Amino acid sequence: MSTLLTDIEGTTSSIAFVRDVLFPYARARLPAFVQAHRHDPAVRRWLDAVAVEIAAGACDDDVIVETLQGWIDQDRKHTALKALQGMIWEAGYRDGDFLAPLYPDVLPALRAWHTAGHRLAVYSSGSVPAQKLLFSHTEAGDLTPLFSGFFDTEIGGKREPDSYRRIAEQLGSAPFDLLFLSDVVAELDAARDAGLRTVLIDRRDDYPQPRLGEATHGHVRVESFAEIDPDLGR
Ligand SMILES: CSCCC(=O)C(=O)COP(=O)(O)O
Ligand SMILES: [Mg+2]
User: Which of 6, 9, 183 gets mutated to test ligand 1 (max ligand atoms within 8 A of its CB)?
Assistant: First the structure.
């Protein structure tokens, strides 16, 4: 049996949802969120991490908010930003402002793999709480019971092989037992360097120019989860 480790943005859910729905929602609410929660230790921890990075800890919260909004505009995959975004999105899911879309081929494949006895896990730049919110508020309902593990960049960056070694260890698996699914070739390169099997997901709505030939770096390329054999490469 394999463990399928999947990315989210550009793999299970569209880049447009993240860019056009989630990011603007968090950007607009960030100033009020920081104002309301600046003394909450779970929030302060991340604000201070940003302050240390941009000004050796010496800046006020308005500067931190402007920095974070700039990072949203640049699509920075920064752990502090992702943690704070997840906290802000919680209200959006709770109030029914949005549901998380999945590409239509994703749910049938996840269910089939789970039923067949394969394990499912998530590794995304989005924080673990944000991942759980997303998969518990999909257009098809709560899918979190399908997953055995959730990992974010607190375990390490997605382009670093050691992150994948740590995930395999935490799942109690040999790296080769994991099949990593992602839309980003550099992430797949890191996973392969750590000994994982890999599949490049090319979502044509998000990637109108298919990655072919040398652009795939030798990773198996598919356009749908329906094409994926969980035991690929064994
Ligand atoms: C938990 S979903 C939020 C999406 C997000 O913020 C993000 O950065 C997704 O990146 P991924 O690693 O899933 O491509
Ligand atoms: Mg992605």
Answer: 9
